[in-house]
């Protein structure tokens, strides 16, 4: 029974005569990047957590990022900082899956705002209504190491909207690890079958006596 249960968790793959089992690595733990006032007025924000580096850059049209205790302004109208923040880029140093974000502050929202994140082949559209607190990405897509994620914010009718993220959470992408499995040579397997047959025959003779 134990062998049967174990086999259900393994996939055997043959490569040139060698046999490998693909065993899933341990479940990856989510990594959270927190934004604070130390990140303010930077044209590029670089943060490293658990060996993964997040880089945020190319703020349009403000040039630099406004960040305070409520987080980074991902959508900011002109009354807030004098210039708009409507788009920027994110990259991660390792392959990750977008998980969630935390909204630390909102203001002047009318319910027609939206946020779009895209890596060119996949995208997640975040639609209003927005409230403060944790929110999962609508599409938790995966991105490769160094791949650019474009962020675009849409104000809707009113350009005085403000949305700040206090944190963004991603999950490292796990890659199956090939683990060699020892399989006896054909000659060895034949020998085992012969020995097994002799043992069965010997037991039958004892029973007849």
UniProtKB/TrEMBL annotation:
InterPro entries: Ice-binding_C (IPR013424). The keyword Signal applies. It comes from Aphanothece sacrum FPU1. Keywords: Cell projection, Cilium, Flagellum, Signal. Residues 1-30 form the signal peptide. This is Flagellar hook-length control protein FliK. It comes from the Bacteria. NCBIfam families: PEP_CTERM.
């Amino acid at each position: 029974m134990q062998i049967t249960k174990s086999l259900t968790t393994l996939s055997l793959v043959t490569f040139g005569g060698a046999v490998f089992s693909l065993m899933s690595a341990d479940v990856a733990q989510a990594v959270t990047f927190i934004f604070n006032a130390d990140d303010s007025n930077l044209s590029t924000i670089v943060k490293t957590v658990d060996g993964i580096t997040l880089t945020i850059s190319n703020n349009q049209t403000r040039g630099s990022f406004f960040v305070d205790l409520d987080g980074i302004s991902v959508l900011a109208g002109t009354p807030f900082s004098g210039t708009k923040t409507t788009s920027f880029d994110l990259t991660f140093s390792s392959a990750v899956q977008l998980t969630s974000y935390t909204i630390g502050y909102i203001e002047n929202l009318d319910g027609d705002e939206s946020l779009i994140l895209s890596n060119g082949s996949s995208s997640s559209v975040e639609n209003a209504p927005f409230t403060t607190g944790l929110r999962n990405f609508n599409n938790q897509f995966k991105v490769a190491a160094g791949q650019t994620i474009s962020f675009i914010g849409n104000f809707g009718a009113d350009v005085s909207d403000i949305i700040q993220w206090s944190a963004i959470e991603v999950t490292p992408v796990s890659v199956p690890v090939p683990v060699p499995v020892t399989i006896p040579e054909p000659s060895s397997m034949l020998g085992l079958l012969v020995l097994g047959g002799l043992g069965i025959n010997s037991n039958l003779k004892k029973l007849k006596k």
